Amino acid sequence: MSRVWYGLHHLIREAAKFATVGGVGFVFDLAIFNALLFWGENGIGPLHDSPLWAKTIAVVGATTVTYTGNRLWTFRHRARTGLAREYTLFFVLNGIGLGIALACLGFSRYVLGLSGPLADNVAANVVGLLLGTLFRFWSYRTWVFPAHRVQVQEQTT
Fold first, then answer.
1. How many CB atoms lie within 10 A of CB 156?
2. What's the CA gap between 113 and 67, in Å, rounded?
3. What is the Cα–Cα distance from 145 to 152, expressed in whole angstroms?
4. Rounded to the nearest 5 degrees, what angle is found at the Cα of 14, between the Cα atoms of 8 and 16?
5. What's the CA gap between 122 and 3, in Å, rounded?
6. 133: Cβ–Cβ under 8 A, 6 or more apart, which residues?
7. Domain boundaries, the chain
8. Exposed/middle/buried for 122, CB within 10 Å: 0-12, 13-18, 19+?
9. pLDDT digits (tens, 9 = 90+) for 17-44
10. Taking phi first (over 0 means left), then psi (-120 to 50 degrees means alpha), and beta for anything else, what does residue 114 get?
11. Are 37 and 47 in contact (CB under 8 A)?
12. pTM attached to this predicted model
């Protein structure tokens, strides 16, 4: 029973750290996204008519921030499999997470016809972020920062 409790406690601590790092990345993402869409004269930013590009740029910047935080803090106890491998996988999996957010934003904007600060932020930064975050946590733990392999030694009797 203590093994189960330890595993659950460890998962909760890891998830809390992941959420903290993600929170920093979220603030970075949100600031860049909204600046690109709405920070300008009359609330019209440089990419006002290109919300998908604005989200892509914001996520790429936030990805660098979150990789560093996750590698150095959240998953520091996990196996190190090489910077190039980890960074590449992190960006690929983040790209899938971005695709989830873009799908939500695109559906809201182009299928439902909803636009403006509230609609764009709910679609991209609430619904899309929530679904993307669940995917990222699972995939980072599984592939980017895997658990150390336990070597099993055969016992002879």
1. 4
2. 34
3. 21
4. 105
5. 40
6. 22, 97
7. 2-144
8. middle
9. 999 999 999 899 999 999 999 998 898 9
10. beta
11. yes
12. 0.68
